[in-house]
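Example 4.3 (complexes with small molecules)
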Amino acid sequence: MTLTDPTQALAELRAGNRRFVTGAQRHPNQDSLHRAAVADGQHPFAVIVGCSDSRLAAEIIFDRGLGDLFVVRTAGHTAGPEVLGSVEYAVTVLNTPLVVVLGHDSCGAVQAARDAARTGTPPVGHLRAVVDAVVPSLQRAAEQGVDDVDGIVDIHIAHTVEALLGNSAVLAAAVAEGRCAVVGMSYRLAAGEVRTVAAVPSVVPAQAGDRATAVAG
Ligand SMILES: [Zn+2]
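Answer. The structure with zinc ion bound is encoded below.
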């Protein structure tokens, strides 16, 4: 399947998540014939910039298979240079039409950042880089009077969408040309459901019940 339209790609992801939530998975593109078919080249229809959390496996929660999703994961879905470069590779070389920032409730990276801010004690080692990447979202949450972890997670997802677009001229150009969209989704660990919390362009249709918010591109 080669999808080039951001709206179609988003609909495909939502349909797969719906199958996952309802136990109606098809496990597409996971057989040996498909494995051989995609060995010569990939055309993933979505980039997933997700948290590394072990319960957030993209191909499982969106009911997809080999060659479908280009997945970049770091604790707290940070947007550092290697992440930006990976996204740009997918969008420009593979022509992937959709970038999804995927966060989740009870995120340990957000909790660690909040703990560090409360105690005034930064984490040791490279974990500090993860925490530092979440700090701007903590500050924004404080400005908005949001104190619960899941509320901060939603703000951090929207912040990551903005960070990708603000720090990647290549991605921003692809969005401006209508070749790509960037959508922030929040996943519920127990329910298995994704909810859209940010979308650029904001014309990307929101799912029923979503609290879709346009963020500045
Ligand atoms: Zn997480």
